[in-house]
Structures are given as C-alpha cells and as structure tokens.
Tartrate dehydrogenase
Amino acid sequence: MKSYSIALIPGDGIGRDVTAAAWTVLETVAKHCGFVLTGTELPWSCRFFKETGRMMPEHGIDTLRGFDAILLGAVGWPAEVPDSVSLHGLLLPIRKAFVQYANIRPHRLLPGVKGPLRAESFDILCIRENTEGEYSGAGGRVHQGTLNEVAVETSIFTRAGVERILRFGFEQARSRRRKLASVTKSNAQKYSMVFWDEITRKLAADYPDVDVTSYHVDALAARMIMAPESLDVVVASNLFGDILTDIGAAIQGGLGYAASANINPDRSAPSMFEPVHGSAPDIAHLGIANPIATIWSGAMMLDHLGEKAAAGRVMKAVEATTARGIGTTPGKDNTEAITAAIVAALT
Ligand code: NAD
Ligand code: IPM
Ligand code: MN
C-alpha cells in the first residue's frame, strides 16, 4: 500500500482548528482510496517561541526535508510575538529553503457560495513568485529613532527567478484556457519591473499558443473586481501576488475559501500546503473558522503527491457540501459541522 509522510504544522490561532479538520478529511479519503497518510505533528508556533526562544528548532528545516509534504495552518500571534519575528522564523524560511518558488492560489466560486460580485463564472489561477522580489529580506535601518532615520527594503529580482516563475505560469496557461496575465508596475518601478516585462516578452516567443498580456498591478486589481471572467492565469511578484490573492479570496466569498500550494516544481524538496488566510486572532478559540480553504489546500497536496483521484473526491465532497448550503454563510455552521458534512459527502 502506498504511504506518504506528512509534516503537520498547525501553528497559531485558527491554524490548529483548520489543520485538524483537513487532516480528518484527508485520512478518510486515504482510507477510501487505499493509501496511507502518516502525520507527524510539529508544535512550532508562537507558543513554541515563548517556551524556547525560537519559532522552530535550530535544525527544523532538516527535520522537514525528510517528509513527502507539509500541511500548515497559520503562523502569527501578534499580541505576543511580533509578526516580523514569527513569520521570518517559520513560514518564510520554509518557502525559501525548499525553493517553493511557485505559489499557486486558485480563485473560483464554490457552488452555493455567494461572492460580493455580480460575476459568478470566473476561474482565476494566481501564480505568485514565492522566494524573492519584495520578500528578499535585504535592507536595514540607520540613525534609528532620529529625524534622520532611513529604512531601506530592497527587492531582489534575478533572471533565473523571474524566468522560472513565468515559465511555470505559461505551462499552467497551456493546461487551461491559454491566457496569461503578467503583472508588474513598470510605469513606476523602472528596474525590476521593466526587467520582468522584458522577460515576459522574451518568453512569449516560446509560447505562441498562449495569449499574453502585461498589466500594471493597480489595473489588474480593478480588473479582478470588474471583469474577473476575463482572467485565466495571473503571474505576479511576491508582494503583488500576496495582495492580489487576498482580493481573489474576497471575490470567492472570503478568506475561508482561498487555498494555496507552495510548490517546489523540481521536487528537490517537499512542497507546503496552507490556506491563504492567517491565524485570525479575532475568531480564534470560537470554533467557527471555515476549514474549507485548508481542506482545498489538502486536496492540492494529494494532487501533488500523485493521488489525483483522491484529490478529485475531496473537491467533489466540498462542492456537494457547499451546494447544500453548508459552510456558505459566515458564522452559521461551525468548523466541526462543516468538516463532518464534507467527511459524510466523501464517496
Ligand atoms: P487573517 O487572514 O488571519 O484574518 C483576516 C480576517 O479574515 C479576520 O477577520 C479573520 O477572522 C477572517 N478569517 C481568516 N480566515 C478565516 C476562516 N478560515 N474562517 C473565517 N474567517 C476567517 O489576517 P490578519 O488578521 O491580517 O493576520 C492575523 C495573523 O496571521 C498575523 O499574525 C498575520 O501575520 C498572520 N498571517 C499568517 C498567514 C500564514 O501563516 N500563511 C497568512 C496571513 C496572515
Ligand atoms: C500569505 C501571508 C504571508 C505572506 C505573511 C503572513 C508573511 O500573508 O501567505 O499570503 O505575505 O506571504
Ligand atoms: Mn497574504
């Protein structure tokens, strides 16, 4: 029997509830489909930081390297640990160390879910560059606390980094509706973004079957609201992709529905699956977090592991559940009820 080892990092806040929910669904579908998922829970979180002074142990990355995949809930408890410490101590180093350069975030409405837009038939795949750009962590502050203080945050874009994410986007477009939106701000940012536009034009020659358009990020943000059905694959830098995918979450009904896969396309290290949302301190411990984003991320994990039939079954069960109106109205069904309905819908 096939078996996969999964590192489970529930993290903080609602991360614990939504990973538990996803794990229940994943274990059930594994049984139905005849494979084994072995989960190893790692308590790395802000609580772990308070106890040990670190978000993960010194050799945490080496520990994770041995797993087939990572399922993560959310990291961050800003009341206790500054976000700049917690995220740079756990989530961001994993994406970087495991070269998970392609962050895939699908945005479409599940049946029965009412989004805020008139448009209902959009299907956007955002591909976010996940290892460099505005998140490079290069910079510093001088003359701290004085009127002369200067803070610098340098975005680093490499040809290798930009080419590989755009190629990844072109390939995704080929397997879908063959439309690619490449997103920059090259009217204002004259180095990195002009560079990105040039590479887009160069690669377009290799993909004559894909219809490519370069957009400025402000215009693309408006288009996601006004004409989301006109978009297929959207490729953006790390920060622009972060912002656009919260818009994507909003138009699909809310952060509780937005899934995310941090993929290492070369398979030289594990990939990581997590919802787009964070630890939601405002609703933590209430048991009302929507687990669908994490369950959908779990389906993306099964797909990545090669268990495509199981991934399809999870999505069918999610869709059957929302079609019945369960998990479609914020606050109506709690985490447990939504999870139980999805488990019951699994065939
Ligand atoms: P957030 O995504 O945690 O919450 C934003 C809003 O969406 C809140 O009102 C919250 O209640 C709601 N929400 C989020 N997920 C939901 C769900 N599954 N069901 C129902 N409602 C949901 O964003 P934030 O408040 O900016 O961040 C809180 C903490 O999480 C911060 O520490 C932040 O840095 C961190 N964060 C972590 C990740 C991650 O681990 N990938 C992502 C985003 C934010
Ligand atoms: C996300 C989150 C993270 C990001 C934060 C928590 C660092 O917002 O996964 O979208 O910006 O990548
Ligand atoms: Mn984000």
